[in-house]
Structures are given as C-alpha cells and as structure tokens.
C-alpha cells in the first residue's frame, strides 16, 4: 500500500504557466516565450501551445539555444504542446 502513496509524490513536473501562441507568427512566438521564461523562477516549467510548421521547428530550437531545456513536444488537437524548463544557470 505504501507504493501507492509514493506514486502520488512523483508528480513534480507540473507547468508553472501556459502560453497559447497558436496563430502567432515567427519570431513573435519565440519572443513571447522568451519574455515569459524571463519572468519565471529557475527550474520552473512553461507549457507553450504552438502551431505546426515553422513555430514547432523554430521555438524549441531557439529556447534550447538560450539554455532552457525542452522536456517534451506533444501533438494536441492539431497543434503542439511544448514543455520548457527554465534554465538554472543564472
């Protein structure tokens, strides 16, 4: 029974905030993502909704170049949900 209690404590990677950037063109979707990450604490997770095509190709690559970690990219109802952990090296 104690194993069931341990499973409840594993849920630690919940997003701190979410940005819905569907319909936002490049480079504005990256700029908005970067600005939001700058307001967050180190290690917090941001969930970003992006369109297919250039946004899902460019935003994850750009935030990685900034030192943040892309945790996942999942297709959600015709768009993508990207989870990004804010860098902890500042």
List strands and helices in order, with pairings.
Blueprint: H1 2-9, E1 17-20, H2 28-39, E2 45-50, H3 54-65, E3 69-76, E4 79-85
Parallel strand pairs: 1-2
Antiparallel strand pairs: 2-4, 3-4
Helix pairs in contact: 2-3
Molecular structure report:
With 90 residues, this protein is α+β, with helices and mostly antiparallel strands. The protein has helices at residues 2-9, 28-39, 54-65, and strands at 17-20, 45-50, 69-76, 79-85. Strand 3 (69-76) and strand 4 form a beta hairpin. The chain starts with a helix and ends in a 5-residue tail after the last strand. Residues 1-11 have low confidence and may be disordered.
Count the helices. How many? 3
* Main CATH class: Alpha Beta
Morphology call = globular
Structural class, please? alpha+beta
Round the mean pLDDT to the nearest integer and report it.
88
Please bin the fraction of helical residues: 25-40%
Largest sheet: 4 strands, mixed
pLDDT under 50 segments (min length 5)? 1-11
CATH topology: Translation Initiation Factor IF3
* End-to-end distance: 41 Å
Calculate Rg over CA atoms. Answer: 14 Å
CATH architecture, by name, is 2-Layer Sandwich
Strand order of the largest sheet: 1-2-4-3
Domains (count): 1
What is the CATH superfamily label? TusA-like domain
Q: Tell me the strand percentage band.
A: 25-35%
List the helices and strands in order. HEHEHEE
Compute the number of strand runs. 4
């Amino acid at each position: 029974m104690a194993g069931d209690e341990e499973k409840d404590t594993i849920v630690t990677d919940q997003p701190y905030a979410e940005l819905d950037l569907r319909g936002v063109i490049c480079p504005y979707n990256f700029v908005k993502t970067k600005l939001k990450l700058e307001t967050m604490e180190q290690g917090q997770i941001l969930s970003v909704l992006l369109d297919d095509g250039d946004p899902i190709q460019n935003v994850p690559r750009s935030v990685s170049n900034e030192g943040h970690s892309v945790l996942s990219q999942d297709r959600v109802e015709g768009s993508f949900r990207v989870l990004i952990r804010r860098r902890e090296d500042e």
